[in-house]
Amino acid sequence: MKILTTFVCIFAFLSVALGWTSLEQVPVNSEYCESSDPSTGKVKIGESRPATGCVRITCSPGLIQFAGCGVASVSKPCYMGEEDLSKPYPDCCPQPVCP
């Protein structure tokens, strides 16, 4: 049973690590990306920074990439912890906790 619990926890950690991504095409500018979402604003090319929630924004010429936490589930006795928005992505993502 301990081996099964360990396997489930490892799988859960991998699920969280994979997360989600979204791409937004933006007009090409030599200095920055500007999202159509006003809350994102301007991001310098080559820069990554946090966004609202547990999300990271990365700017490349003509493209903004958004990355966030994945969805995971665990079996008892493990459980998923809470997001910790005091930390940057991906450290803010919920992590499996196995007693």
UniProtKB/TrEMBL annotation:
Main location: secreted
Signal sequence annotation: 1-19
InterPro entries linked: SVWC_dom, Vago-like
Protein keywords: Secreted, Signal
Subcellular location: Secreted
Any single Gene Ontology cellular-component annotation: extracellular region
Domain spans labelled Single: 33-98
Entry protein name: Single domain-containing protein
